[in-house]
Amino acid sequence: MSSKLIRGTFILTLGTFISKFLGLFYVIPFYSIIGEESVALYQYGYVPYTIFISIATAGVPLAVSKFIAKYNSLGEYAVGRRLFKSGLLIMSITGVIAFAVMYLFAPFFAELVVLNQDQLYSLEDVTYVIRAVSFALIIVPFMSLMRGFFQGHQSMGPSAVSTVVEQIARIIFLLAGSYVVLNVLHGDVVTAVGVATFAAFVGAAFGLLVLFWYWVKRKKHMDELLEQDKGEVQVSLVEIYREIIIYAIPFVFVGIAIPLYQLIDTVTFNRAMAEIGQAKESDVLFGILNFSTQKIVIIPVSLATAFSMSLIPHITTSFVSGDLNHVKKQLNQTFQVLLFLTVPAIVGIMLLAEPFYAVFYELSDVGTEILRAYAPVAILFALFTVTAAILQGINEQRFTVFSLLFGILLKFALNIPLIKMFQTEGAIYATAIGYSASIIINLLVIKHYANYSLRSISKQIAQILLFNLIMAGAVFSVYSLISPLFDLTSKVQATILIAICAVIGAVIYFLLSIRTGLTDVLFGSRLDRLKKKLKLSRA
């Protein structure tokens, strides 16, 4: 069973990674097709959609899989099947309602971002894009429940495959559709972006077809399990749904954290920019802030997401058993490895912001400066994700809701004043302040309930920061020396420049870490072979 569990976890993790990887790098051709000025229009539609879909589905697969697995282990297979059937009906209704609300209120959402006649896009343009993406809400909640059902039966393949197929279908339709509209049909960019956002519906449809195929293929086995049902437990669906909702709410809030921050930018950025006389530039700058740079900054955060997914069960087991010493060791390793891997990635993005932006989009002084300012916020995204997961692990998830809402309130209060003072960077500063407040609250709660403090790893944190400083000095020197030799308008040359600097930085960073024994503390004996090969073992 443990072998099956490990295999299933690997499959699901691999599927999630592939999907995220595709979701990060499709922006390169998409940007080339629609241009810099149009990515803002795409985000105007996608931000409210992300919030709607997160509220409708976040936590549902995890909650459903948890309860189905629980009753399957008791031999009460009929309970899980009853939950599945009623859940499909409820999620179908939820999806239709969410679609209707988003479609009907699209003009209202559009009014929140179109505040000045000098802006590039009209109310009708933004309304059209929001309505185009809203159709996906009909399918996705239904699909999320099916994924949870399969996961509850320790069958991770259907979720992994459907996730990847959904992403591939979405990206193909998005890229092909927007290209055909602009270059074959010679349509306008608003129609092209509308087609691109409608791709969410197409992708969801393909993902759902994959799940239906798995259902038909495995229904015979599911029915055989149903015949073995003991029938000794009678559970009210009301009770099950109440527990599922309570369990899922923290995941909903964690899932919509970044979209909520983006929503605040969506409804305040153009207003603040218009008040300082920059309405004409606000759409382009909003696109750079909320789409272009955000896609790059989120890359290191994917690592934190993977941590949080695997963190909860281990910490929960140790915490419930009362082994707080083991909980502290797990938390120490988690924070150390997180910082060890994400900080150098963030430093690298800051130092190489110009070629990074050129590779993903085009050479841009404005894009470079915004990316350089935004990159450090990635560590806050990562720390919030992991600390929220820890709170879930120690059964104090209610504080996740409080800390997030407090951070959101700070962001909302500070966004317009800071944008007026610092323009686009002001929105970044407000995000950093909001996330920092949420993280501090989470850490205080962890300290109180798990008796844990980051002071226990202060030495390792200092080493990581020092090594990053040394690495940054070396990379900056190399970059300053060789960058004039490269034409950054060429994506190939910009990529080569990044690769050279990244290799140099990685070698310096890991050599320092191995020599000082930091890797021993973080990874144990797993690097012994590498150390022997490099002949760098300490005496």
Automatic annotation (TrEMBL):
Keyword field: Cell membrane, Membrane, Transmembrane, Transmembrane helix
Keyword Protein biosynthesis recorded: no
Superkingdom in the source lineage: Bacteria
Transmembrane segments: 12-34, 46-68, 88-106, 126-146, 167-186, 192-216, 244-264, 296-316, 337-361, 373-394, 401-420, 426-445, 465-486, 492-512
Subcellular location: Cell membrane
Coiled-coil positions: none
Membrane association type: Multi-pass membrane protein
Alphabetized InterPro entries for the sequence: PG_synth_SpoVB, Poly_Biosynth_Transport, Polysacc_synth
Annotated protein name in UniProt: Polysaccharide biosynthesis protein
Native source organism of the sequence: Bacillus kandeliae
